[in-house]
Design brief:
Radius of gyration: 57 Å
Subcellular location: Membrane
Number of helices: 23
Distance between the termini: 104 Å
Helix content: 40-55%
Shape: elongated
CATH superfamily of the largest domain: CHASE domain
Number of domains: 3
CATH class of the largest domain: Alpha Beta
Enzyme class: transferase
Oligomer: single chain
Main location: membrane
CATH topology of the largest domain: Beta-Lactamase
EC number: 2.7.7.65
Keywords: Membrane, Transmembrane, Transmembrane helix
């Protein structure tokens, strides 16, 4: 452990001077200075941003006004073209053309589109009479009186509502409208009128309006010069507008945050005001713009202003930055003080950490010593690649992982190949026959190909969060010898979510399994004949009886065999020959039995056969065939041969019986009948004889 060297007194004095309080004040002053600079810069940037945003929105709003008016003027040019392409446009043609334009849907704010016909005083009466003949008996030129020229509205679409008030109104009568018509006539261009009150406004409400007029000339005559235009003028197509309807929804978001005022002409006066988006808001404007735009020969003065709310969002940034800087400055000052104060604690903690590190290393050394010298085979494995594969999309969504792996052995093999052997102690290397060649070890020394189903179960258990899993399997030593083992997998604490540190203990149980198999064989097999003994046969008979009770359509039969005159063979030839006869009969029984049948030796010279799925008739055929085979195959011994015959009793299993004892009793009775009837024969329960041979 490194020793902390003592400091010179001068250095200690400097450290005392640069104590927590001084450092905290220094950090606080520096941070506040930086905060002020950042706030000043952010405020300047916000001002430039807000002014730029205001200028952009204002220009966008001016462009929208001009674009909308130009669109409506283009509609009037279309109506002018209708007159230019025809010698005469009647009312129906006029209405049909404008109905196709769908003005209410595509041109909001426009009151309608009409036609004013120029009528000299001499033709006034004829004009009135003609319009009345069209179905308007009350038609008259309004207002009445004698004038040199009249310009009454003869067509106006839509021809309903307030537009009916304008029907027949003489636009030449009123000075503002007359000046507009004259300017349109003389220039041949669209002309926008001064501020006026529309004829449609009959409710007494004061609403600013204007007209846009476009001349219609005699298309058979030239109208290139001023004199020609005044000579060939026939009327005007025009459109009346309410200013507030025209402006509705024009600016979108900009209209809601900006105040818009429009004045007729160059002067800004209440009498010339045509539109005021937010009445009374001019006094509180933080920003404003004064612009003039020319539309159809008429100048409008536009005032655009932004109230305090326009700057609120951008102005919040400097304030937020200032408050954040102040809070951060105090926070850093407090943090500096805490860090300086905790310096001594950190040194003490460092010394403690060094002590703990030394203890941990000592513990690791002890663990490594125990690991390497343990008498049990220990394997250190890394399953992180398996964990990553299970988290992949193709496996992450599997509902039943165990069934999924069971149906895909190739996937289990790929997962097994991803397990990495990190280390193995001496006992594990000896068990695998590796010696010191630990690098040659693989998962096959834990799970070979035959044990991959057990490996799959281990994968499922660890994937579900189990920290401990035990199973039996088989492995292959490096010399190729297959062995059986017992495995315990332990996921080390803290590695459950990565599976990168798994300790596996293995125990070679090959000899134990062999001994167990031998014990099972001894407990279930007749040592002389190799057939199942009485206990094993009874267990199988009990299983078949349970199956019959579950499946009402199935059947089964039992054959009970007894060697004829076996005592004579034993007495005459000796017990060794008697044993040979028993083995001879067992071999003949095995040679002809079905895979589903169960053969057994009950004791002495008595054998039994269980025939699943076989009724009495079929069982009789099998019994007779077996009897004939045994009778036709004598046992060859030194000095000659010994004829062997059997008597067989047959009984059918009954599902209504509580146990299997009844079928054995009935089969034994049938066997007794076969013996009593002369031996070497087959009898069924109830006394029916199925086969007969000469009794010996």
């Amino acid at each position: 452990m490194n020793k902390i060297r003592s400091m010179p007194p001068a250095v200690g004095a400097i450290q005392d001077w640069l104590g927590p309080r001084f450092l905290s004040c220094l950090i606080l002053c520096a941070c506040l200075g930086f905060t002020y600079g950042a706030w000043r810069g952010a405020a300047d940037d916000a001002e430039r941003q807000m002014q730029g945003d205001f200028d952009f929105r204002a220009r966008e709003l001016l462009g929208a006004i001009a674009a909308r008016m130009q669109t409506y003027i283009q509609v009037l040019y279309g109506v002018q073209g209708l007159y230019a392409s025809s010698d005469f446009v009647d009312r129906a043609e006029f209405r049909h053309y404008l109905s196709l334009q769908q003005m209410a849907q595509h041109f909001p704010g426009i009151q309608g589109i009409g036609y004013m016909r120029l009528v000299p005083r001499a033709q006034r009466d004829a004009h009135v009479a003609m319009v009345r003949r069209e179905g308007f008996p009350d038609y008259a030129v309004k207002p009445g009186g004698e004038r040199e020229l009249y310009a009454p509205v003869v067509y106006l679409e839509p021809f309903d509502g307030s537009n009916l008030r304008a029907f027949g109104y003489d636009g030449w009568y009123e000075p503002v409208r007359r000046a507009t018509l004259e300017r349109a006539r003389d220039t041949g261009q669209a002309t926008l009128s001064a501020r006026l009150r529309l004829v449609q406004d009959g409710d007494g409400r004061e609403r600013a309006g204007f007209l846009v007029a476009l001349p219609v000339y005699d298309n058979q005559r030239a109208h290139a010069t001023l004199a020609q235009r005044r000579e060939t003028i026939r009327g005007w197509v025009y459109a009346p507008f309410h200013m507030e309807d025209l402006m509705a929804g024009l600016g979108g978001v900009a209209e809601r945050v900006l105040d818009l005022e429009i004045y007729d002409g160059d002067a800004v006066a209440a009498a010339r005001r045509m539109y005021d988006g937010q009445p009374g808001a001019a006094a509180g404007l933080a920003r404003s713009m004064h612009r003039q735009i020319d539309i159809a020969g008429r100048r409008w003065t536009v005032l655009i202003g932004a109230g305090p709310g326009f700057d609120r969002s951008a102005g919040d940034k400097p304030r937020i930055l200032a408050w954040a800087g102040v809070l951060l400055s105090f926070g850093l000052a407090v943090l500096t003080w805490l860090l300086a104060r905790s310096r001594a604690d950190a040194r003490a903690a460092l010394r403690q950490a060094d002590l703990l590190t030394a203890q941990r290393r000592a513990g690791e050394a002890r663990f490594r010593s125990l690991y390497d010298n343990a008498p049990v085979a220990l394997w250190q494995q890394d399953w992180s690649a398996v964990h990553a594969a299970l988290a992949a999309p193709e496996l992450a969504g599997v509902a039943d992982l165990a069934d999924h792996l069971r149906l895909r052995p190739e996937l289990v093999a790929r997962l097994a190949a991803q397990v990495r052997i990190v280390g193995a102690n001496g006992a594990a290397r000896a068990q695998a026959g590796a010696g010191d060649a630990a690098a040659a070890l693989s998962l096959a020394q834990n799970f070979d190909a035959a044990a991959l189903p057990a490996f799959a179960r281990a994968v499922v258990a660890l994937a579900q969060g189990a920290q401990l899993f035990a199973c039996e399997g088989s492995f292959v030593r490096l010399d190729g010898v297959a062995r059986q083992n017992e495995l315990t997998l332990l996921v080390m604490p803290g590695h459950e979510h990565s599976l990168d540190f798994v300790i596996v203990t293995t125990l070679d149980i090959t000899e134990r399994k062999r001994m167990n198999d031998e014990l099972v064989l001894l407990a279930t097999t007749d040592f002389l004949t190799g057939l199942p003994n009485r206990r094993q046969f009874m267990a199988r008979l009990d299983d078949e009886h349970a199956r019959l009770q579950r499946d009402i359509d199935s059947c089964a039969s039992v054959l009970m065999l007894d060697l004829d005159h076996f005592k004579t063979i034993n007495d005459g030839h000796g017990h060794a020959v008697g044993d040979a006869v028993l083995r001879h009969v067992a071999a003949l029984m095995l040679d002809g039995h079905r895979k589903v049948d169960t053969l057994g030796r009950l004791g002495g010279e008595e054998f039994v056969i269980l025939l699943p799925g076989t009724d009495l008739a079929a069982a009789g055929v099998l019994a007779e065939r077996l009897r004939q085979r045994i009778a036709a195959t004598p046992l060859e011994v030194a000095g000659g041969s010994i004829a062997v015959t059997v008597s067989i009793g047959i009984a059918a299993m009954r599902r209504v019986e509580a146990g299997y004892d009844g079928v054995l009793v009935r089969a034994d009775k049938a066997l007794y009948c076969a013996k009593k009837g002369g031996r070497n024969r087959v009898e069924t329960e109830g006394g029916a004889e199925l086969g007969l041979a000469a009794s010996s």
